[in-house]
Amino acid sequence: MRGGYIYHCEVIEMNDASMTARMCLFARAYHAETYGIKVFDDSLARRLLTDEEYRQMARYLVQGISFFAPDFQGTAEEALAHVVDSQLSPSPLGRAAFAETSLERAAVIGARQYVLLGAGYDTFACRQPAWAKALRIFEVDHPATAADKQRRLEQAGLVPPDNVCYVPADLAQPHWQDALLCCPGFSSETISFCILLGLVYYLPRQAFDTLLAALESLFPEGSSLVFDYPVRQTAGSRDRKQAQLAAAAGEPMQDSWSYTEMESILAKHGFLIYEHLTPQDITARFFAPFNRVHPGHPLSAPEGVSYCLAVRK
């Protein structure tokens, strides 16, 4: 994709760590650094990027403005804001806000383990509020991304608290859960809260079924699962561009789901849908305060995405 940022960003690919995860990190950092009223405040994201990386990513996004908005006219700063706010930020900001508000409720009513599957560069462990201190936190991710994150945490001088365990594991491989089961402090008998953010898009149906089977064995009744997923519909322009970018980064998106299909496969593995948000719900709940302050360039949830909170029964 020579007109877009993915082509240019190849020069900063490193250690086979996920490019999409790093772009989500940039989006959270940019949002936290730029705006007073925030959809989601990742106050540590910027510290995981060097100044040169941040400038490079910003520059490549600006260079890709013709892909995102062929008729755009404005300054480089305005181009960056347009690309980040219209294309890059809504997904990672909205789903993070949904996950962490849901986590807080779950912790209040008894969840004692927080499992992040495909944790990427999530910073919750290092900025956890007082209500999270009773949790054991387990970050599971591909070894290359996990190693890159550890390096960045060290360079930023961020020391994770003692209640955090990092679990290098490839979710695409059989028996990945063995690494989690071997992690000190993890118990399959403890009520848990698990997130799977930004991953269902890349899982073939059989792979998602297999993953849910693993989660069924890992978590007891009363545990929760939060994830976002692509809804079956006619894809909008923004959705098509996101799919093109993911494919260009070597992480092609897979099939989409209807609500009925998602409900059925969850029930097969003992999970019942407790909360389900449409794009309209997401925009109203998480983006409305920001949009009232910034009516000239409001944020909105991607058209073909829903959020789901399911509970193990």
How much helix, percentage-wise, in residues?
40-55%
Classify the beta-strand content into a percent band: 5-15%
Nearest-integer average pLDDT: 89
Q: What low-confidence regions span 5 or more consecutive residues with pLDDT below 50?
A: 1-16
| Major β-sheet strand ordering | 3-2-1-4-5-7-6
Structure summary, number of beta strands: 7
Question: What profile does the largest beta sheet have?
Answer: 7 strands, mixed
Number of helices: 13
- Per the CATH scheme, the topology name of the largest domain is Rossmann fold
Give the terminus-to-terminus CA distance: 45 Å
Task: Please explain how this structure is put together.
A seven-stranded mixed sheet has the order 3-2-1-4-5-7-6, with helices on both faces. The protein has helices at 5-9, 19-34, 51-63, 65-68, 76-88, 90-108, 124-127, 143-155, 177-181, 205-218, 237-248, 259-268, 279-293, and strands spanning 113-117, 136-141, 164-168, 192-196, 224-230, 271-277, 305-312. With 313 residues, it is of the alpha/beta class.
Summarize the structure.
With 313 residues, the chain is an alpha/beta fold.
List the helices and strands and how they pair.
Blueprint: H1 5-9, H2 19-34, H3 51-63, H4 65-68, H5 76-88, H6 90-108, E1 113-117, H7 124-127, E2 136-141, H8 143-155, E3 164-168, H9 177-181, E4 192-196, H10 205-218, E5 224-230, H11 237-248, H12 259-268, E6 271-277, H13 279-293, E7 305-312
Parallel strand pairs: 1-2, 1-4, 2-3, 4-5
Antiparallel strand pairs: 5-7, 6-7
